[in-house]
Amino acid sequence: MKAHGILAYTDITSIAPLASLERDAWHIEKPEAEPKRRMNLMMKKICRFLSPLLIAALVLGSLPVVAASQPTPGATLISTEEALSAERGQSHRERIHTILARDDVQEQLVAQGVDPAEVEARVAALSDAEAAQMADQLEELPAGASVVGALFAVFIILLVTDILGLTNVFPFTR
Amino acid sequence: MLTSRVWYVENARAAGVLVLRKRLRKIPRLRFAGLCLILLLLTGCAATPQLAETTQQRLPERLLLDDVPFHGQRDYQCGPAALAMVLNAQGVEVSVDALIPQVFLPGREGSVQPEMLATVRRHGRIPFVIEGNLDTLLTEIAAGQPVVVMQNLSLPAWPLWHYAVAIGFDLEAEELILHSGETPQRIESFKRFDATWARSDRWAFVTLAPGKLPETINEDTAIEATTAWERLQGAEASLPAWNAIVERFPGTAMGHFALGNARHAVGDDEGAIHAFKQAVTNDPNLAVGWLNLGLLHHARGENSQAQRAIQQAADLPGKWQAHAEDALNRL
């Protein structure tokens, strides 16, 4: 009992510096490790929450495809759109992605200030490929008639390039 | 003593001037060379585009589609304005004001390319993106089609994206005529136009009623454009477009396949079977053609023909093999 006590004592003293080192290391590590761990935990939580939703969305999203390829009850033919996407080497998963893209584009259009009453008709007029393109890169797509930055240096450069016939910003250069 | 001193000073000055002159002579030469280099680099990427010999012979010397109405753009709305011009020229009565809520993106203060095409579809015309070069552009204008072009009027670093409608040209003066922005019949040199057009990867499209095809269109682009149109407007409305495609490209397999689908959708199953047969005659490896031919035979109770066609599809490796084997088992 006594020996055990001494052992325990020596143990503590021998370990103490190590423990403090470890604590220091922990302190240094903490600001990086803690958010990471939290992020991981949060990601796990989000994934746990999102996965069933995504599965449901994918299943629901693929239903209209099946329905759409049945124009008449007589024969279920492969639609031209499906055949073309297969020709292009698009996998089934990519096809579902392009179909889901339409919902995404609807949301983005509303966020860009489009009248919600118009959004549905606008998205319906897009081809699958265009809808996917809009969903993935609406921000980067060039939009006809943006404004040019009004910096003085830019003005001078553009004036010169206008005179050289490379650009067409200022009508008075011609 | 005095004279010798004066001589010395003058001599020194003369020598100094000589050195300075030499230096000055060198600097402008360097500067001039540098300026030339910069100019060469800048203009090098913007040489006047050359037309192919055959195009030049085919085209009239000068041409203007003066029946294309002009709509001036307001604010940043060159997209709706350009669309109104080409649609009106096609006989579609639609105003710029009606088009703005259909194509303009307030958040981007402009209109994006996919939606320009989509809006044309909504108004019953098929948008065909044409190949991006001056030969194609001028050929389409000469065929009577105003062409919507996308330009970046500024430099890539500070883009100024713009839609205009090309309506004419003058080969001798090397000039293009466009309805652009607030200017009707604006004249731009081929060189300047091509420099600004190249920055959008020379994006351009024409709009046509179903049943008509652009002069320069290739098979794949025509089929893609018509498929997108059919998705919105339905099979019946797209039948003339598919007929035009198989007439222009008799060897097309996919065109006949699509025609078969459209015919089937409107209840013309015999016509559909004929089209599917033509599709697999043109390309015996078109598994999806065999598959649809078989499925349609099966629906009509013609089981031996169905069996034969689906077997063909099942023998071809690819995406439709599993589908075909499945169908065979159900026969």
From TrEMBL, chain A:
<dbReference type="Pfam" id="PF20332">
    <property type="entry name" value="DUF6627"/>
</dbReference>
<feature type="transmembrane region" description="Helical">
    <location>
        <begin position="147"/>
        <end position="170"/>
    </location>
</feature>
<feature type="transmembrane region" description="Helical">
    <location>
        <begin position="46"/>
        <end position="67"/>
    </location>
</feature>
<protein>
    <recommendedName>
        <fullName>PA2779 family protein</fullName>
    </recommendedName>
</protein>
<keyword id="KW-0472">Membrane</keyword>
<keyword id="KW-0812">Transmembrane</keyword>
<dbReference type="InterPro" id="IPR046735">
    <property type="entry name" value="PA2779-like"/>
</dbReference>
<keyword id="KW-1133">Transmembrane helix</keyword>
Automatic annotation (TrEMBL), chain B:
<dbReference type="Pfam" id="PF13529">
    <property type="entry name" value="Peptidase_C39_2"/>
</dbReference>
<feature type="domain" description="Peptidase C39-like">
    <location>
        <begin position="67"/>
        <end position="178"/>
    </location>
</feature>
<feature type="repeat" description="TPR">
    <location>
        <begin position="253"/>
        <end position="286"/>
    </location>
</feature>
<dbReference type="InterPro" id="IPR019734">
    <property type="entry name" value="TPR_rpt"/>
</dbReference>
<dbReference type="InterPro" id="IPR011990">
    <property type="entry name" value="TPR-like_helical_dom_sf"/>
</dbReference>
<protein>
    <submittedName>
        <fullName>Peptidase_C39 like family protein</fullName>
    </submittedName>
</protein>
<dbReference type="InterPro" id="IPR039564">
    <property type="entry name" value="Peptidase_C39-like"/>
</dbReference>
<keyword id="KW-0802">TPR repeat</keyword>
<dbReference type="InterPro" id="IPR039563">
    <property type="entry name" value="Peptidase_C39_single_dom"/>
</dbReference>
